[in-house]
Design a protein that fits this description.
The complex is a heterodimer of chains A (197) and B (181). Chain A is mostly helical and 197 residues long. Chain A has a two-stranded parallel ribbon. The radius of gyration of chain A is 19 Å and the shape is globular. The model of chain A has no long low-confidence stretch (mean pLDDT 94). Chain B folds into two domains: 79 residues, no CATH class; 80 residues, no CATH class. Chain B is globular, with a radius of gyration of 19 Å. The mean pLDDT of chain B is 95. The chains are: A mainly alpha (197), B mainly alpha (181). At the A-B interface, helix 1, helix 2, helix 3, helix 4 and helix 5 of A face helix 1, helix 2, helix 3, helix 4 and helix 6 of B.
């Protein structure tokens, strides 16, 4: 059953990633150099919608709180984010979109994946020496959520009721998606529908 | 051709929600490690070994968290690995409706404008980018899917720390590298 769900949800994920343009490095470059924020709006919208559905579902009782999987906060999360951010802007791909882009026919994405497998191997080899360093020091207890989610196994950073906070943040993400301009940098052309040229 | 951000954003949000509702939050970058493990174990049979309690590995990373990754290397037909393969299938279905030129498939137009037409240069750049991205994602313990999308949607502190780090590096890098657009 879980394999069936992996196929259905995975295929839907790959399909939507490609449809909204994340598999096209030009859109990634334009989001990150702030000349076209179409993708940033879609990402904000997705986080907002996902958050609201999940927390409303928890409150209504049809979403299992136990399905939450909160990752540990540690120094390496920020450092790794900086490293990944540099590579993302440099290449135009992130791990998920590279797989979808290669499948959609982009040849350069295959080279990204090959480099990625080598990068993963480099991390596997260096993990033993990274493990004991400050990079693995936990921040604020590690596996924490911003509010305290009722019934969840995670500590809250604050005592605010976590599901309500999640819904409120979800609404804020959606509002930001709407008020964000189409671009923050660039000339005076107004259309955001034309890629590349 | 490109999906409107409102419709696309809602569709993407629903997919992330369905993943949590039915199984668990979406994540991708771990599977680069699992594929490396599968390749490594095929070359050296001793890399992943079965124990009384489960699986372990001579590699400290595969052995961590009671051999969680080692177990997935030994059993590639698990949810997360199949998920990534299915992603590729979904993107193929989406991609057939759209034909990019051969040139665009090799060198994206914005890269071309800033760094020229060399295919080799782009392939080397993509390879180096891939190395940096996955190394960084593994150090962080997740990527755009696992930390940024799934993490912030669950209001996890780690998702916010990761996202701030990513954009703090990505925006200046892109503004310097892709001046011509």
């Amino acid at each position: 059953m879980t394999i069936f769900l992996a196929i259905v949800i995975g295929a839907a994920f790959g399909f939507v990633l490609d449809r909204i343009g994340t598999t096209n490095p030009n859109w990634i470059f334009k989001m990150l150099n702030l000349t076209n924020l179409h993708l940033a709006k879609a990402i904000l919208m997705a986080i907002g919608v996902g958050s609201i559905l999940m927390f409303v579902g928890q409150m209504a009782g049809f979403v299992d709180v136990g399905h939450m999987s909160v990752k540990t906060a540690y120094v390496g999360v920020g450092v790794g984010g900086l490293i990944m951010g540099f590579g993302w802007a440099f290449s135009g791909y992130c791990p998920g979109t590279s797989v979808a882009a290669a499948a959609s026919g982009r040849k350069d994405a295959l080279f990204f994946i090959a480099g990625g497998l080598l990068g993963a191997a480099a991390y596997m080899v260096s993990y033993a020496s990274i493990k004991g360093t400050f990079l693995m020091d936990k921040i604020a207890g590690g596996k924490v959520t911003l509010g305290t989610v009722p019934g969840a196994k995670y500590e809250g950073l604050t005592a605010i009721q976590g599901d309500l906070l999640g819904i409120a943040l979800g609404v804020i993400f959606i509002i930001v998606a709407f008020v964000l301009p189409n671009k923050l940098v660039g000339g005076d052309e107004t259309s955001d529908a034309v890629p590349a040229e | 051709m490109l999906m409107d951000w409102k419709i696309g954003g809602v569709a993407l949000g629903v997919v992330f929600f369905l993943a949590v509702l039915l199984v668990k939050p979406i994540g991708v970058s771990t599977q680069f490690v699992i594929l490396d493990g599968i390749i490594g174990d095929a070359i050296n049979n001793e890399l992943v070994v079965k124990t009384d309690e489960g699986y372990t590995s001579s590699n400290a990373y595969l052995a961590k968290s009671h051999g969680k990754y080692a177990k997935n290397v030994a059993n590639p037909l698990n949810y997360s690995f199949i998920f990534v393969i299915a992603m590729a299938i979904g993107a193929v279905v989406s991609g057939v409706a759209r034909r990019e030129t051969k040139e665009e498939r090799q060198v994206p137009s914005l890269w071309r404008k800033n760094f020229g037409d060399s295919v080799a240069k782009r392939y080397v750049g993509a390879f180096i980018g891939g190395f940096i991205v996955i190394f960084g994602a593994r150090l962080a313990g997740g990527c755009t899917s696992g930390h940024m999308m799934s993490g912030m949607m669950q209001t996890s502190l780690s998702g916010y720390i990761f996202t701030i780090g990513v954009f703090a590096a990505a925006i200046p890098t892109a503004m310097i590298m892709y001046k011509r657009s």
